[in-house]
Write a structure and sequence with these properties.
DNA polymerase, domain 1, alpha/beta, 2 domains, Rossmann fold, Phosphoglycolate phosphatase, HAD_2, 231 residues, phosphoglycolate phosphatase activity, metal-binding, six-stranded parallel beta sheet, 10 helices
Length: 231
């Protein structure tokens, strides 16, 4: 059984209930830029990617960088206007994160958000130093490239087999696979558990507290095995 010492979390749709705002902001950006809206499901399907990649995935017919940049700027303006009060954490997230810290886990964030966007939220929450490291899409390679996970592992001094990626999108879980890391699929965010099952997560959850329960059971099982071995 693998013993995890580092827990890495996606942000939107995993820790915070922001999917509705992301979808609405993308629709508003499309309206502002005079391009057709994509369906809610199509927008959910690109959540997790860096914003430029997300836009070109939604609108592959756009062949000029200026068009992508205009949509990106419109989306950012719309989202920030909606997000003056940060999106709420999902139930039991704050309590569970605090418990993980008390138990000695290192905590990290790997997100498709921009550094400016994530930092604005962390500053509002007073969480500037809450995580051991955070990595954003505009300062490294976009998911599902494993670079941001590799950078987190290097910073924390932890091998991939001792880290766990928790996310709600195929990009999160594929990134973890490519980094040689176990993953947990979250079913209450952007994508369904059935869609995420193809990436062979170690655990699938539809409530954040299930992660705490699972990790605690693993620790208890490991201690029992060690006790029996000593005996």
């Amino acid at each position: 059984m693998r013993d995890y010492s580092l827990l890495i979390f996606d942000w939107d749709g995993t820790l915070v209930d922001s999917i509705g705002r992301i979808v609405a902001a993308m629709h508003q950006a499309a309206d502002r830029c005079g391009i057709p809206r994509r369906s809610d499901e199509a927008v959910k399907g690109i959540i997790g990617l860096a914003l430029p990649q997300a836009i070109t995935t939604l609108y592959p017919e756009l062949d000029e960088a200026a068009h992508v940049e205009r949509i990106q700027a419109s989306y950012s303006d719309c989202y920030v206007a909606m997000d003056q009060t940060p999106s709420a954490f999902f139930p039991d997230v704050e309590r569970s994160l605090a418990s993980f810290r008390q138990q000695g886990y290192q905590l990290a964030v790997a997100t498709g958000k921009s550094r400016r966007g994530l930092q604005r939220i962390l500053d509002t929450l007073g969480w500037q130093d809450y995580f051991d490291i955070t990595r954003c899409a505009d300062e490294t390679a976009s998911k599902p490239d494993p670079m941001m996970l590799q950078e987190i592992l290097e910073h924390c001094g932890v091998p991939a087999e001792q880290a766990l990626m928790v996310g709600d999108s195929s990009f999160d879980l594929l990134m973890a696979q490519r980094a040689g890391m176990d993953s947990v699929a979250v079913g209450y965010g952007a994508q369904t558990l059935s869609a995420l099952s193809a990436y062979q997560p170690k655990l699938s959850i539809d409530h954040f507290m299930q992660l705490s329960t699972w990790l605690s059971s693993r620790v208890a099982e490991t201690r029992t095995e060690e006790s029996e071995h000593v005996g």
